[in-house]
Amino acid sequence: MLQAEIKSLLKEDISILIKVPNSAKHYVCDCGEASLLTVKEAQAISAIFISHTHIDHFSNFDGIFRHQIGSGEKVVICGPRNIHQQIEARLKSYTWNLIDENAIEYEIREIVSKEEINVYTIRPPYWNLEYVKTQNVLFEDEYVNVDFAILDHKTDSIAYLFKEKDSVTFHENISDFKNGKWISELKTAFENNDPDKEIEIEGTLYKALGLFHLLTRNEGYKLGVIMDHAADEDNYKKIKDVFNHADMVYIETFYKDEDQEFAKMNHHSFASASGKIMKECNVKEAIPIHFSRRYTENDQQEIETAFYKAFRN
Ligand SMILES: [Zn+2]
Ligand SMILES: [Zn+2]
Questions:
Q1: C-alpha 292 – ligand 1 centre gap (Å)
Q2: How far is the CA of 297 from the centre of ligand 2 (A)?
Q3: CATH architecture of 1-152
Q4: Mean pLDDT on 114-127
Q5: Every domain range in the chain assigned CATH 3.60.15.10
Q6: Which ligand lies nearest to the CA atom of residue 292 in the structure?
């Protein structure tokens, strides 16, 4: 099951690390100050997901690439409109005369709309952008698919949903056969929806369909990260489209209810509004994140109380 860890302390900006089980790979959502992010973790990040480039979400991008450069790996960066130019500007602001051209490669995916994602690559030492293609899928690797919503925060703010791939369980206790390589053949037929596939067990051929009762499909865990957004109906409609029935969602809750006028002014959310939309989305668990830096620990508790009251009520 995907595991998220908040790497920022109270009064720091926001950065959430997502760890993939049984894999050395991590993803990171936003690059705010993150005292708890270790060098080893930064080096294991294979994809960076940026909601928007307000400084509190983007300032530690340098801190992360500082540890990644030299890895020789390809790292994907997903983000809103113009993210490619902002990454380019950041990378070009340093001197790279001692860096090899294979030190790293970034593949940047600029989210223009739900159907239009522009892909660019950029590499040292000159960091000139190269346009590769336009595609309609944001991100997929061997572990997850990533869906998203483009929310309004007076600028695009991308909310991401990480969907672990479904898995298939074999129920040995109800099988009359000896285990063997036929189990993985059967699983493949099941995953490919191929009931006519012939499976050989102990010298006899069986139709896959007749063996499917030995398997069950486990739906992959769904983990969401919703950063800065205005607490309004347009955003809520988009959030419901993508995050309905998610297992766990981290959601921006910048203000206390008593400061909701500021939320409105700054296109942010507040405690009971974030809790309520999570309830309406039928998510199993939700966690409020990214509080105003002027808040104390008591304010944070107040936010959490109002949030969970609206979420669980
Ligand atoms: Zn913001
Ligand atoms: Zn913010």
A1: 11
A2: 18
A3: 4-Layer Sandwich (3.60)
A4: 97
A5: 1-152
A6: 2
